[in-house]
Amino acid sequence: MSTPSTMKAIVVEKLGGPEVLETKTAHPVPTAGEGQLLVKNNISGVNYIDTYFRTGLYPSAKPEILGREGAGTVVAVGPGPNTWNFKAGDRVAWLGTGGYAEYTAVPAEKTVKIPEGVKDEDVIASFLSGLTVLSLAKETYAVQKGDWVLLHAAAGGAGFLMTQILKTLGAKVIGTAGGAEKVALVKSLGADYVIDYRSEEGKDWVGRVKEITNGRGVDVVYDSVGKDTWEGSLEAVKKKGTIVWFGNASGPVPPLPLARLTPKCVKVARPALFGYIDTREEFEFYVNELFRLLQSGELKVKIHKVYPLEQAVQAHLDLEGRKTTGKLLLRP
Ligand SMILES: NC(=O)c1ccc[n+]([C@@H]2O[C@H](COP(=O)([O-])OP(=O)(O)OC[C@H]3O[C@@H](n4cnc5c(N)ncnc54)[C@H](OP(=O)(O)O)[C@@H]3O)[C@@H](O)[C@H]2O)c1
C-alpha cells in the first residue's frame, strides 16, 4: 500500500492545558531523513513528559506533535549508512518525537524490532517507562538485595513497572499512591508496604516510613512527584542515603541549597533516560533486558486504556487528574 501525503495528527500550536491538543486530519506525512525510518504507527505511548512539553515546563519548538514512543511498521527507510539494516515491513518499537500521529519519522538508532509473540501494545506499555525504571534501578542507584526503597506514585505508568523491578532485585519496597484502589494494585505487585499519601492517616507518610524502618529511613527514594514530596523525601531518606528525583508530576523541585544535603550526607541524582541509552550499545543493553523480562513473564504490564488518537485531550485530562493506573496508549 502506498503512503499517503497527509495524515491524522495531534498538533500543539501554543502552550496550555489539554485543550491545546488539536486534531488535524490533513497534516503532512513526514519523510524519513538521513538515519531515519518512516513508521506507520499501530500504537503510541502517552507519558507524563508529554504534558511538560505541552505546558512549556520543558522547552520545545511549536507547532509540535507530542509523543515520544510508538510501535508499528516501517514503510520507508531514509538515506545514509545509519539505518541499522531496517527494511520496509519490519515491526518495530521506537523512541523519538512526534508519536501522536499516524506516521512518524523516527531515528533508526533508537528503533528495535519487536520479538515475535510480543504484542505492540505490551511493548509500548513498558518501553520508555520500562527502559527508564531499569536504568534507574541499575545505574542511577544500583539497588541491592535487602535495600529499603521508597517509591512515589507506585501505581502509575513508571511506578507499576518499577515496583516489580525492585522486587525482582530483592528490595524491600515502600510505595506511595493516591487512593485505596491504587494502594491495592501496588500491594498486589508484592510491595512490602503501601501508603495512601492522600488519605488523612497517610498525610504523615514520612512518619510512617520512619516507623517501618525503625527510625533509620530508606536507602533510596525514587521521587517523580517533585514539588509536593521533595521535602518529605529528604526527611525519609537515611543517613548517607540517595534520592533520585526523576520527574515533576506535581511541579518541579525548587532550587535546592546544597547545604540541605549536609546533615545526613545525602546524595542526590537527577537522571533522564536518554543519558543512559545514548549509544546503540547502551540502548540495546536495556532493550534486551526489557524484552527478556517481558518474554519470561517476570514483568507484567498494565494498560490503563487505549484511547483513539483524537481522544488525546481526554488522555491528558485523565493522566494529570491522577485518574489512571499503569500506561495510557493512543491508537492512531
Ligand atoms: N527522568 C526520566 O527519564 C523519566 C522517564 C519517564 C518518566 N519520568 C517521570 O516519571 C513520572 C511518571 O511518569 P508516567 O508517565 O508513568 O506518569 P504516571 O505515574 O502514570 O502519572 C503520574 C502520577 O503522579 C502522581 N501525582 C502526584 N502528584 C500529582 C499531581 N499533583 N498531579 C498529577 N499527578 C500527580 C499520580 O499518582 P497518585 O495519584 O498515586 O499520586 C499520577 O498518577 C513523571 O514524573 C515523569 O516525568 C521520568
TrEMBL record:
Cellular component GO terms held in the UniProt record: cytosol
InterPro entries referenced in this protein's UniProt entry, alphabetically: ADH-like_C, ADH-like_N, ER, GroES-like_sf, NAD(P)-bd_dom_sf, QOR-like, Quin_OxRdtase/zeta-crystal_CS
Presence of the UniProt keyword Transmembrane helix in the record: no
Ranges for domain Enoyl reductase (ER): 16-330
One Pfam short name: ADH_N
GO molecular function per UniProt: mRNA 3'-UTR AU-rich region binding; NADPH binding; quinone reductase (NADPH) activity; zinc ion binding
Keyword Transcription regulation: no
PANTHER family xrefs: QUINONE OXIDOREDUCTASE PIG3-RELATED, QUINONE OXIDOREDUCTASE-RELATED
Protein name: Probable quinone oxidoreductase
